[in-house]
Amino acid sequence: MKKALKVVGIIILILVLFSAGTGFYFYQTDPMIKAIVENDESKLYYFPVKEMEDMHDLKYSESVIKVEDSLDIYTYFFQPTTEEPKGNIFFIHGAGGNVSKYKGLIKPLVENGYRVYAADWRGYGNSTGKPNYKGVLKDTEMAFVDFKKKTQADSLKTIVYGTSLGGQLAVKITKDNENYVDALVLDGSIMSAQQMAIDYAPVDFLKEKAKKNPEDFNQKYVAVGDIKEIYNTPKLIIHSRSDRDVSFIQGENLFEAAKEPKEFWITDTKHIMTLKEHPDEAIHKIDSLIR
User: Dihedral (C-alpha) 24, 29, 34, 40: value to the nearest 10 degrees?
Assistant: First the structure.
């Protein structure tokens, strides 16, 4: 009996050592698992691309904003193809790529009379630096100040349009500038960094870690909380049931938290593909927000 127990003990010890070794191996070799364990936001939430795609088919001007005396943030102001612009859109892209990767979403807007201002956060496209939670907020806030300077002389209405991770920033900008913003549009927006960590955790213990430690995500802006403080601005919240990047429940929770006036448009596209796959309906709904 003692011999059998000893064998069982050895087997359990081997299994424990094997599991620990396997876990350590993946921790060291898989950057995403390591980022989740260490809550490294620069790798968890931001996936910048430096190479810019050709945007010659769009009419735009490019300018640079100096941030913190050492960072250059590149901005792009796209002009409509129509003679009379009908609105100004402050467009905030998602976690991946750079502004040029979103030209397929910007194009339907400019073709239907909207002027579109977009900025690349630090580390994206031609912008210098490395993205992080506080940094991309500062970049967005400074870009919005520049956007207001460029549009304050006209009488056009302002729409803040956020996609995916940019949706959380769109909510924050709208909350802080509600007297200037006439409408808010969110497409495939996240509700919080914590929910993204929960959704993307590859193993149960990391999922539970994210659930039980909200202080790890005690950030300055959380969309599902901030949207409650936007009172009179019309809101269009778009989310696809087929979205595999940002869970549908995040869109539902954002809509539930938002105050009237609001509309929830449920689609069946890939992530943030509304403008590309349903341009006519999207433009109609956006037009209705500022009438």
Answer: 150
Q: How many CB atoms lie within 10 A of CB 9?
A: 10
Half-sphere exposure of 155 (CA within 13 A, CB side): 1
Render pLDDT for 92-132 as a digit per residue (tens, 0 to 9): 999 999 999 999 999 999 999 999 999 999 999 999 999 99
- Whole-number Å distance between alpha carbons of 180 and 157: 9
> What was the pLDDT predicted at 27?
43
Taking CB atoms within 8 Å and a gap of at least 24, the contacts of 280-286 are 282/108, 282/238, 283/108, 283/109, 283/112, 285/236, 286/87, 286/109, 286/114, 286/159, 286/183, 286/185, 286/236
| Alpha carbon distance 41, 137 (integer Å) | 13
Tell me the three state secondary structure of residue 174.
helix
Q: Where are the domains of the chain?
A: 1-38, 48-290
CATH topology of domain 48-290: Rossmann fold (3.40.50)
Number of H helices, E strands in the chain: 12, 10
Using one digit for the tens of pLDDT, what is the confidence trace for 68-81?
Answer: 878 999 999 999 98
